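Most newcomers find our protein records easier to grasp once they have seen one. A learned vocabulary of local backbone shapes supplies the integers on the structure line. An example says more than a description, so a record of this kind follows:
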Amino acid sequence: MSANAQALVNTMTIPRFSASLCNNQHFVLVWLDVRITDYNQDSINTLHELKRIVGVINTFVDIDSCADFIKSTENEKIFMIVSGALGQTIVPLIHEKSQVTSIYIFCGDRSNHVDWVKAWSKIKGVFINILPICDALEQAVRQCDQDSVPLSFLQVDAESSSIQLDQLDQSFMYTILLKESLFKIRFSKKSVKEFTAYCRTQLPENDLDMIDKFESKYNRLKAIWWYTNQCFLYPMLNRSLRMMEVDTIIKMGFFMQDLHRHITELHKKQLKDKHSTELFIVYRGQGLSNVDFSKMKKAKGGLISFNSFLSSSKKESIAQIYARRAITEFGLMGIVFKMFIDPSICSTPFALINDLSFYRSSEQEILFSMHTIFRIGEIKKLEFHNDRLWEVELTLTSEQDQQFNTLTQLIQRETSEENGWYALGRLLLDLGKFEKAEEVYTRLLNETSNSTEKNFIYHRLAWIKHNLGDDAAAIKLYEASLKIDNSAFCSSGLTLATTYHNMGL
């Protein structure tokens, strides 16, 4: 094997069980083949193409380690390429794993395998050329990205017709509170460099060129262009919101804020230019898991929240493509969301982005800002004979919607006490993310000269140290607070008493 070929294989192979450490996407690619290091130069070139599509390729030469890796990967979908010989052994072991969605048999002779694969529904075909696998994977990746927007369903109490606030899932509350905190922060110019430095430690090698380009070319008026670009940003954002990866969400805060503001500015301009408040319809096609589909049916009449930015199109045919593609995957229902929009009363900004999108297409794409909330209407089959393809009618909520107002008031109560970085720090404490909260409060401490603010921050940092089990450090922070309390400017019996009380830990 050539040195170049070996170098490529080395970059594909990562330590066992560590895929998620450098995976910002919603899937991983597993390749099992005893001949993984024996390919000729033509195949090596194709491997480069595979890396362009999926970023990281997790390669294995033995069944046991591959099966263990698959069983340990719980939060991402798994696409698998496997040789025919090993496939006959491993497919029965891993086929029922819900995370395994697509299996591609790659072999030298199709005739040896076309019969046995018929028993396994997740096998997409037997291939003697890897290029068709690349094409299939590229389509699967696009579908995976489309299906990755995190959702929450808010049921209505049948008797009172009120939202059951006690049943709000944590992902909805925490992501919306994070958003409210992040959108009030004044980010500095160094936020971009801090984000790209973070990306270089988290993302695979094939993303590095795009990270460099983002660092040198990004400005807030290009936020939509970057969001629609087929690069690391879109999957990274949706994954972080779906998995509640607080580190990533905070690092991307400036980008989320820029994207929201850009959509808001466009929304105002387009509404003013067109002078139209006529109701219109947009469509979105995607896959829903059986679990989420069941939740949605139970929430009929209630609300659905898309907990990230949301792409849609005025063309139903585009939504149909994604919905029909979804039902080729095991465990997914194909959904066409039919969304009724009244621009005069909408609660979330949205904009037509054809001229600003990376693709500059004629798809009539409408992009909504974060946490767009709709009321769930009719849920019906698209085709009488197909139990997996559905149309769901959604109506964008208005500020006059009683249940939407109840939800809004709840969120405002949770975020009214503090603003910006302070609100974010408190939220992180509520989440139990003490190390990340410590970073936020340390940053605030370094940036303020106000004695009252310093006193407050010392108390928060001391409380964090106590929760991390470092009482010695906590006492030192309380002592720093006492120096301020004892000063002529901040002397207060109440603050002194509070500090001495807290020092008792």
About this structure: Residues 1-22, 488-494 have pLDDT under 50 and may be disordered.
